[in-house]
Write a structure and sequence with these properties.
By secondary structure, this protein is of the alpha/beta class. Helix content is about 35%, strand content about 25%. It has helices at about 20-30, 50-60, 70, 85-95, 115-120, 125-140, 170-180; strands at about 15, 35-40, 45-50, 80, 100-105, 110-115, 150-155, 160-165, 185-190. Strand 2 and strand 3 (about 45-50) form a beta hairpin. The longest helix has 16 residues, at about 125-140. The radius of gyration is 23 Å and the shape is elongated.
């Protein structure tokens, strides 16, 4: 199963708790991000400052130049870990309407960031890459030598599996495993049983 660790960006722009509004806006403009994680002195993600936070909390105050990231940030921050599945990260983003999530280690320290675009990259794989991963997975790991003949065809992310499979359980498992491979849109099968009556 693919995880956030497979797609996240390791180089991350972040803010200190005492970063003033001017520095926050400059960082967002310079790097083109709509939100930035705010780190404690120990490197833990204490919160996240978004453009919406800037507009709602900083705008309209006479002393907006003295407002800091600690005052603007949304807490508690929604984060992912490196082991969070791609689907799990996508659910977190969809639920909270987030475009990016900070990625933290077991101690809550920032180790990367994952964006919607990062998550979508795995679904934009060339057909041949998908087919090669399935061949490696099926033919070298899952199917004992000589126990089945499986041919793999991939077109526009749709996997076609056909061949001779003796074990009905294997015929059921292979499509399920194929569906879990990133980039696979659908799976069709045309297995023939070699078992004798």
């Amino acid at each position: 199963m693919r995880t956030v660790n497979d797609v996240m960006t390791h180089a991350v722009v972040s803010l200190d708790l005492d970063a003033p509004v001017h520095d926050i806006v400059q960082a967002m403009r310079r790097w083109g991000f709509g939100s930035l994680p705010v780190l404690s002195a120990e490197g833990r993600v204490a919160g996240v400052v978004s453009e919406a936070d800037l507009l709602v909390k900083a705008e309209g105050t006479d002393e907006s130049h003295t407002v800091t990231a600690a005052q603007l940030m949304t807490v508690p921050p929604v984060t992912a870990t490196k082991d969070t599945s791609i689907a799990g990260a996508a659910r977190l983003m969809a639920r909270g309407h987030f475009k990016r999530l900070p990625v933290v280690d077991d101690d809550g320290r920032l180790v990367g960031v994952v964006s919607r675009g990062d998550l979508l990259k795995i679904y934009l794989r060339p057909d041949e890459d998908i087919a090669e991963e399935l061949r490696e997975l099926f033919l070298t790991r899952l199917i004992p030598s000589g126990s089945a003949i499986v041919r793999i065809h991939v077109e526009h992310g749709v996997v076609g599996l056909d061949g001779d499979v003796r074990d009905p359980a294997l015929a059921d498992v292979l499509p399920s495993i194929a569906r879990s491979v990133p980039g696979v849109v659908d799976v069709t099968t045309r297995f023939r049983s070699k078992a004798t009556a």
